[in-house]
Design a protein that fits this description.
Blueprint (H helix, E strand, L loop, with lengths): L2 E8 L3 H13 L4 E4 L2 H10 E9 L7 H10 L6 E5 L4 H9 L4 E4 L4 H27 L15 E3 L3 E5 L5 E5 L1 H7 L2 E6 L5 E2 L4 E7 L4 E5 L4 E6 L1 H5 L2 H5 L8 E5 L2 H4 L4 E2 L5
Parallel strand pairs: 1-2, 1-3, 3-4, 4-5
Antiparallel strand pairs: 6-7, 6-15, 7-8, 8-14, 9-11, 10-13, 11-12, 13-14
Helix pairs in contact: 5-6
């Protein structure tokens, strides 16, 4: 059996590696650090990790190439992408390519701690879901995938088209399961514009950590789900139907739909 370490951190800046390693130690997590992707791949061949945190811009191979290699090798370890070149396009691409989170630099201790805890929880949930798949025991089902006619951006958010040309967007059950109990939700306002790859919702858990939900598509908010405002538990109980977040008029759906994943491909 491979030796196990909590987190593998990959960045070409030693100051970032040291900062993440220190923050991880503050929450009693072990970590290894690497200055490039090839070094990281060598580590992955020898050890088991529960979470990978990787920068985008590095010499030789970048963070997106690591995501591609991880997918090819069928490594199940969740990956968080971090970058000093924070753009909406990078956020969308990271989630589309399989990252479970995206965090721009510079980040605070609380921001990094939040996404580390969520990333580790993803790993546990994926493991439980794989057990369900192998055993076909419904009691082991850990999260509900989004309905086949929907689209999703990574594991953050979903979008569903309506017949009258508007869209509904919401939060995936997997994202919600990874953060635990919801204490508070910060909504955007009607008439505000949501941008694909930008934050559309903030959810605070019982430990006061903030979790930012990344929007699956761009558009103008025309309606907020009042039922969820009044009863936030509805979001947890029925995230794909009664628990939708915003109804929107999409801005560029024909183009942006190419950046999100058909949920039918998850079946």
């Amino acid at each position: 059996m491979k030796e196990s370490t909590d987190i593998l951190v990959i960045d070409d800046e030693i100051v970032i590696l040291d900062a993440i390693k220190k923050i991880a130690s503050l929450i009693d997590l072990t970590s290894d650090t690497c200055l490039n992707v090839d070094e990281a791949l060598n580590n992955l061949n020898q050890k088991k990790y529960n979470l990978i945190i990787c920068d985008i811009m590095m010499p030789d191979k970048d963070g997106f190439e690591l995501l591609h290699i991880i997918r090819q090798k069928r490594i199940q370890t969740p990956i968080v992408i971090t970058t000093g070149f924070s753009t909406l396009e990078n956020a969308v691409k990271a989630l589309y390519e399989g990252a479970i989170g995206f965090i721009p630099k510079p980040f605070s201790v609380d921001e990094l701690t939040s996404i580390i805890k969520r990333g580790l929880e993803y790993g546990k949930i994926f493991t439980a879901q794989n057990s369900f798949t192998k055993s076909k025991n419904e009691d082991l089902l850990s999260f509900v995938p989004c309905p086949p006619k929907y689209y999703r951006l990574g594991y953050d958010s979903w979008m569903n088209k309506s017949s009258e040309g508007t869209v509904l967007i919401g939060v995936t059950d997997l994202f919600l399961k990874s953060i635990g109990m919801i204490k508070e939700i910060d909504f955007m306002k009607p008439e505000e514009t949501v941008y694909q790859g930008g934050t559309c919702l903030k959810i605070y858990d019982n430990n006061e950590f903030s979790h930012q939900v990344i929007a699956p598509i761009s558009g103008k908010i025309i309606d907020i789900n009042e039922k969820v405002i009044v009863n936030k538990s509805l979001l947890e109980k029925d995230p794909y139907f009664q628990g939708w977040i915003y109804r929107m008029i999409p801005e560029n759906l024909e183009h942006e739909i190419n950046n999100i994943i058909p949920c039918s491909s998850d079946i």
